[in-house]
């Protein structure tokens, strides 16, 4: 009787071990690089198809992801947004460290496939401190529009790259998603 139990348990353990090894070979981890930088999360390859972490990839590419749990549906929204900076009526993008400039931001938005509840334009200094230049919390239903901020005075106190960002919210309760970014170089 003991001999039958030993054979049965040995068979179960071999089968379980073989299943784990097979599963490990069927699902392979894959490193993800986005614009030349390694992502913080890995993807997986299952049956020859790569599956990537959707939210991280979308965030890296400047796209909004919405999730409908009832319909098990993910939607990626990536409008075309072009940013231009104006000082008076001249385009600019290079500044000197320690100087204060008065400028406005012009955004051209097209290919917007959904309505949005709010937009925000902000500037982030080289240390990561963000300042909102202007925001609007009115529903926008057009698929294309232009938006220009009022003049803003900003002091470029540090050398390095300053990021001017255009962010949006699809729903009022969503987090801000940056969908476009323009860099300003501040030099000594």
In words, what does this structure look like?
This protein has 188 residues and is of the alpha+beta class. Helix content is 17%, strand content 50%. Strands 8, 9, 11, 14 and 15 form a five-stranded antiparallel β-sheet that branches. The chain is globular. A hairpin with a 2-residue loop joins strand 4 and strand 5 (49-51). It contains two helices and 17 strands. Residues 18-24 have low confidence and may be disordered. The protein has two domains: 2-52; 76-187, Sandwich (Immunoglobulin-like). Residues 1-23 form the signal peptide.
Quick take:
The chain is α+β, with helices and mostly antiparallel strands and 188 residues long. The chain contains 2 helices and 17 strands.
Strand and helix layout:
Elements (H helix, E strand, L loop, with lengths): L1 H25 E4 L2 E2 L2 E2 L4 E4 L2 E3 L2 H7 L3 E5 L4 E5 L2 E8 L2 E2 L2 E3 L2 E12 L7 E7 L5 E7 L8 E4 L3 E5 L3 E10 L7 E11 L1
Parallel strand pairs: 10-17
Antiparallel strand pairs: 1-4, 2-3, 4-5, 6-7, 8-9, 8-11, 11-14, 11-15, 12-13, 12-16, 16-17
Structurally, how many domains make up the residues?
2
- The helix-strand sequence is HEEEEEHEEEEEEEEEEEE
Question: Mean pLDDT, as a whole number?
Answer: 84
Shape: globular
Strand content: over 45%
How many alpha or pi helices? 2
CATH class of the largest domain: Mainly Beta
Q: What is the total tally of β strands? A: 17
Structure class: alpha+beta
- The N- to C-terminal Cα distance equals 86 Å
Question: Could you name the CATH topology of the largest domain?
Answer: Immunoglobulin-like
**Poorly predicted runs of 5 or more residues:** 18-24
The CATH architecture of the largest domain can be given as Sandwich
Computed Rg = 25 Å
Give the biggest sheet: 5 strands, antiparallel
**Helical amount among residues, as a percent range?**
10-25%
């Amino acid at each position: 009787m003991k001999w039958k139990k030993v054979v049965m348990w040995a068979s179960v353990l071999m089968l379980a071990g073989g299943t784990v090894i097979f599963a490990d070979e069927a699902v392979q981890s894959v490193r993800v690089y986005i614009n030349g930088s390694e992502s913080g999360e890995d993807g997986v390859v299952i049956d020859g198809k790569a599956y990537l972490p959707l939210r991280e990839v979308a965030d890296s590419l400047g796209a909004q992801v919405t999730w409908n749990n009832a319909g098990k549906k993910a939607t990626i929204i990536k409008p075309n947004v072009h940013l231009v900076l104006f000082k008076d009526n001249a385009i600019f993008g290079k500044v000197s460290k320690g100087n204060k400039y008065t400028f406005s931001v012009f955004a051209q938005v097209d290919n917007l496939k959904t309505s949005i509840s709010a937009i925000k334009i902000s500037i982030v200094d080289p240390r990561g401190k963000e300042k909102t230049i202007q925001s609007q919390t009115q529903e926008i239903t057009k698929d294309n529009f232009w938006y220009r901020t009022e003049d803003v005075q900003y002091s470029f106190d540090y050398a390095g790259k300053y990021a001017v960002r255009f962010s949006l919210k699809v729903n009022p309760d969503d987090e801000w998603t940056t969908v476009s970014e323009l860099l300003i170089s501040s030099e000594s």
